[in-house]
Amino acid sequence: MSIDMNTLISQMIMFFVILGCGFIGAKLGLLKAEVIHGLSSLLMGVICPLMLIAVFPSAVQEENAWDIAKSVIPYALITYPLLTGAGFLTGTLLHFRGDKRKIFTAQCLFGNMAFFGLPLVKEIFDPVAVVAFSFCVVIDNLFLWTEGVLLTSKSEGGQELSLKLIIKKLSNPVIVGVLIGLMLMILKVPSDLLILRSFDTIGSCAKPLALLYIGGTIALMESGSLKKAWPVVFVIIIKLIVMPVVIFRVMTWLGVNDLARNIWTLIIALPSMASIPIMAESFGSTEADYAVQGVFIITLASLVTIPLVVMLCR
Q1: How far apart (Å, rounded) are the C-alpha atoms in residues 230 and 161?
Q2: Which of 135, 217, 239, 301 has its CA 20 to 30 A from that of 194?
Q3: pLDDT value at position 134?
Q4: At a CB cut-off of 8 Å and minimum separation 6, what does 146 contact?
Q5: Treating both helix axes as pointing N-terminal to C-terminal, what angle do 163-170 and 127-143 enclose, rounded to 10 degrees?
Q6: Cβ-contact 129, 122 below 8 angstroms
Q7: C-beta atoms surrounding 212 within 10 Å
Q8: Nearest Cα to 83, choosing from 111, 120, 123, 124?
Q9: pTM to 2 decimals?
């Protein structure tokens, strides 16, 4: 895997420090709940969309949008069902049933792409990889607001999945940012325009603010006894270590291009999505508390497992 280990480890240490600042700030009351929720809105509504709008045109010199899309999107049709099957099978072998097995499967399936993956990719890869990752974000949203809703809903009852809900959730600023950036890329708009450079400057705030948000969110969670979260050990082993290495080796064997292989390996190695507990609570899952506890452990573990996966895939 063509990632400089020194750069990656430096990024992981930086991630840990900033995340820790968010955690401590929230625990000390310096970061109020309303501020942390405001960070989420700022990131998803302004910073990430503007960053994506700016980064798409900067990649146009090397490849066109269709070539990049073709290099990454088809593997979603394999990767997401594979992760779903791995999570469901492991949950069954662990004798989980009902909502517990569904939340466990969601933890194995969905990575924290917007708040963790996007800032990381921007730091360690070139603009083409960021564009490729952005296409993956769109695919991830499609699965999240369809399959993800089903997995985080109460087995009997709870909020039902509907076409109106799917369309509403997919009509978010990040997806709009991807579409605008894609249009600018197709039109070959110069990346050195003052407005795009301004957007890029705003986008550079994504990493620190996203990590402060994650740290603050974890601090505000009513985690309860972490002993109840022991199943996340298997999520860490399967999602954060085994599956990324397996996917990387299989893609290498199949001769998949480096861009798609590296992007999908990193996507699978990302910690479970921080919004899974929020969705679980919103859609009536009886295992929302377990989902909350899992976010804390899995996120911290990923700071070690991501460099480990890169080492195993070299």
Answers
A1: 30
A2: 135
A3: 81
A4: 161, 166
A5: 160
A6: no
A7: 23
A8: 111
A9: 0.79
